[in-house]
Structures are given as C-alpha cells and as structure tokens.
Amino acid sequence: MPPTSDTRLILLGTKGGPRVGKGRANPANVVLVNDRPYVVDCGYGVIRQLVDAGIEVHEVRTILITHNHSDHMLELGPLVYSAWAGGLREPIEVWGPPPVSKIVASFLESVAYDIDIRVGDEGRPDLRKLVRVYEFEPPGPVFEADGLKVSATKVRHPPLTHAYAYRFDTPGRSIVLSGDTTYSPELIALARGADVLVHEAMHLASIDRLLDRVPNAPALRKILIGYHTTTEQLGHVAAEAGVKTLVLSHFVPGDDPSITDAMWAEGVRKNFAGEIVVGRDLMTI
Question: Do residues 80 and 104 touch, judged by C-beta distance below 8 A?
Fold first, then answer.
C-alpha cells in the first residue's frame, strides 16, 4: 500500500527469531517522518537493509528498541558505529528498556581500541560522547519532536519483564509497532484507532517444521506458543483495536516457503474485516 502522508514505514526485516538464513532479514523497521529516519529494532542485517532502502546510515539520529532479545538488538551497536563511520558528528539517541544502557556501553567498550585510533589518526569526534541512551518504563509518552509524538506501553512477552510496543503519531498518520508479544490488552489500548498496526504473526500449524530445524532448544515449542501471537489471535487484536490496516511481520516461522501469503492472512481474516497486508522486506507502508 502506498504511503498517504509524510509519515511512512519501511519494513526492513520481517523474519522473527535470531537465526539467519535466505529470504527474509531479521527484525527491523524504520519510520520516516518528513524523511527523518527513526529506526525501530536492530536485528542482524539492519545496516544493509537501510542501505538497500536508500537511507544513509549516518542520517540516523534516533533508534528505538522494543526489547533486548538478540534478534531485536544484535546489530544495535554496529549500527551506531556505522553511522559514525559514515560521517556522524551530531548526537545519536537510543531509546529502550533496560538493560539497553549496558548493552550499548559494552559494545562501545569492545570497539574502544578502534575508536581511540580513529579519533587520534583521523580527527573524528569521540563516538562515546555522541551516543545518548535513554532507558524508560512505559506506559506513556516517550518523546515529541517536530510534530511527532512517540508513545509506548509494555506488552506481554515473558520471561522478559521489559518488552515494549511503540506508537508514532503525526498530524497525518498513526503507526503502531507491536514488538514481540502474545495477546496483549495493553497493546490493543495503545493501538486504538491507529491507521496502521504492524504486528508479529505466528503460523501455528507450521511450528513443528521450525522446531525440526532447531534441535538444540527442546523448550522452544512451549515458548513460541506461550509468548507469541497466532494469526487467529491477531485478528482479534486488530478488530478490538479498531485499526484501519493490519500489517503482518516478524513471521514465525519466517523462512518456510510453503506458507503462502494467503495462508498467513487466512487465520487473521476469521476475526478481522479490515485491510490486511502480508509484509515483505523493504516494503513501504
């Protein structure tokens, strides 16, 4: 679907989980407000996906993390570094739940040797002085800037006690990104009346094939079913929130070519009569 205002969303990576494979990239999105990029989640590959989406990495000034599972923050530090390597001279902000401050600090420490050399040799500003990390606990407003209001709420993604969904409101549009969650009344409240809801989706009938490819995680079935949202549940979420358009993303499993777009939408359609978009990498919403 084409964007309808100066606020648009690009799905950078639509595969759920930390494994890397062919096809869909790992979880990441970017919301553009008057062409200013706000990156939401930094799964492995986010830098390359931004480049392929036509966004200069050094133009990124704000990054938001929904939660600190590896598939959502593994390339957070490298993204900050790559922005600096590409010419960043102004502060870059990272917003998210604890322990995101520790994660960023640990990454910067791991590349301190390189930073020190480049500061001394190339005259670059010290990256460690440019990064601003903001840990917070929703619900409520996160920040406002240039006509944009970002709000958040906690969602239900155990065992994490800090997992967030974000809502972007501008004069022309409202976009909500669920992060990882099972059925969550808090998310429904956050998404009430939104133009677009981007929500994770799990195809329950295909879970066994996924488990066959991950032999070292015997408890994975219980975790997937208990901590994520089936397509049937997702239809209820979208209907109860009254959203105009539902975008399926963070697919579990996200690397099973036997699951067609029609199959992803089928369970949702049982409970939601609005527009359904089966997301793909680099799709603009």
Answer: yes
